[in-house]
Structure formats: structure tokens, C-alpha cells
Design a protein that fits this description.
By secondary structure, this protein is of the alpha+beta class. It is built from six helices and four strands. The strands form two sheets. Strands 1-2 form a two-stranded antiparallel sheet. It has a two-stranded antiparallel sheet with strand order 3-4. The chain is elongated, with a radius of gyration of 40 Å.
Length: about 180
């Protein structure tokens, strides 16, 4: 009598002891060992990648709302805000008039004591935000608006042909000696 040919698991390649198990994996029927049957053979409730023959559920979606028309741009006057040149003098005088210490003022204004002292002595210029806080607290003027003239954009003539220099952004490096 001929010896039975040993069976091997089609997933892990281990020899199968006993009859083995037939499972359906990704649409193919395979012979697997007990260990692979534990991993892959048990039926899992829920999602199956195999088609079931059911018709897909049709979902209805509401139509997207049309976007509102963009507002036309209004021309705003161009201006910049600049800190006045004698800001340190003005802040220092205001601090002296208040009669309070730098520590008290820093808590009330919302600036650090170090920043307040540096601004008052002219070591650094306040930012616009800091200047607005100081203006509001001391009722002084530190910011001035500078109106800029509206410049007309330079138009390119219709018969203009650009040169390579117009298109290329050339960086000239100095040679090392």
C-alpha cells in the first residue's frame, strides 16, 4: 500500500495534520492548517469583500447651494501708519504726569515693564499694537497716518516684445579671490 502524500497549508506552507480545513479567501477556495484556519477561516460578522447580489442603496444628496456673488471691490485710500519720531519723549512725559511706577503702568497697559521702559527711554520703537495701547491709556498721539498717492500702473505697449533680460531673474555672484 502506498503512503499518503502529505498535505501542506496553502497559506503558510506548514504540513497539515489531519484532514485540514477548506476556506474561502478572497474568492479562492484553499486548504489550510488549524493555525491558519483560526486566523482566516472563521466567519467574521459584518463586511465581506465578496459581492452578495444585493442592490446598492441609493442615497439622495441635496444640491449644493450656489455661492453668493462676490462683492465688487471698492477702492480704499492707501495709507500707512507710522510711529512719530519723538515717541520716546511723549511716552516718558506721559509716564511722569501719571505719577505711577513702571510696574503699576505695565499691569494696567498690558505691556511688560521691560518693554515699557525701553520705549520710554527710546531704546526701541513700539509696534503699532503697542503704540495703540499707549495712546489709549495715556490719551496721547503716537501714530500718524501717511497718505500715499495712487500711482497709475505702468502699462505695457502692444508692440512690446520682451527680451531675455526681462524674463530671466539673473543673480550675479562675486568671484572668490
Amino acid at each position: 500500500m502506498a503512503k499518503a502524500k502529505p498535505k501542506y497549508c496553502e497559506i503558510c506552507g506548514a504540513p497539515i495534520r489531519g484532514p485540514g480545513h477548506r476556506i474561502r479567501l478572497e474568492g479562492a477556495e484553499v486548504l489550510v492548517c488549524d493555525r491558519c484556519y483560526e486566523k482566516y477561516g472563521r466567519k467574521k460578522a459584518g463586511f465581506s469583500i465578496m459581492p452578495t447580489g444585493r442592490q446598492p442603496v441609493r442615497r439622495t444628496y441635496s444640491r449644493p447651494k450656489p455661492k453668493p456673488a462676490p462683492k465688487p471691490r471698492t477702492e480704499r485710500p492707501l495709507y500707512t501708519e507710522e510711529i512719530v519720531e519723538d515717541f520716546a519723549e511723549r511716552v516718558y512725559r506721559a509716564i511722569q504726569r501719571s505719577g505711577k511706577s513702571y510696574e503699576e503702568l505695565s499691569h494696567e497697559i498690558g505691556l511688560s515693564m521691560k518693554d515699557l521702559r525701553a520705549i520710554a527711554h527710546g531704546y526701541r520703537e513700539p509696534t503699532i499694537k503697542e503704540a495703540k495701547k499707549l495712546e489709549k491709556y495715556f490719551k496721547i498721539t503716537l501714530i500718524e497716518r501717511v497718505e500715499e498717492e495712487v500711482k497709475e500702473k505702468a502699462t505695457i505697449p502692444k508692440d512690446y516684445e520682451p527680451t531675455l533680460g526681462d524674463i530671466a531673474n539673473i543673480k550675479i555672484r562675486k568671484r572668490k579671490k
